[in-house]
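Backbone shape codes
____________________
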Amino acid sequence: QVQLVESGGGLVQPGGSLRLSCAASGSIFKIYAMGWYRQAPGKQRELVAAITGGGAKNYADSVKGRFTISRDNAKNTTYLQMNSLKSEDTAVYYCQAHVATAPWNPAFGSWGQGTQVIVSS
């Protein structure tokens, strides 16, 4: 079993910053890609940012230049630094990781429970 726990969400004014964290724990052999998704009310879940095991990153166009994804492999943790937040960034943010629990097992996607981000004055 693998658990992902997000933290760092909350209420912030437009133009403000938040830093989300996602820690993976459990039966982990190796974590491959990690990513952040978000889902706003009435909308589909969308990819915000992702980072490979080697550190390559990609971002949704809507957050480029404002959000930065990073990871600490020693801590099995990924972070999402969000700057210059806008009201349209309001959503529940979910962490996802592709995890292998043993060398002979294929990796599978695991999700966190989500953390709410509200950008409002």
Summary: The chain has a mean pLDDT of 96. The chain has no helices and eleven strands. Residues 5 and 120 are 25 Å apart (CA to CA). The two ends are 40 Å apart (CA to CA).
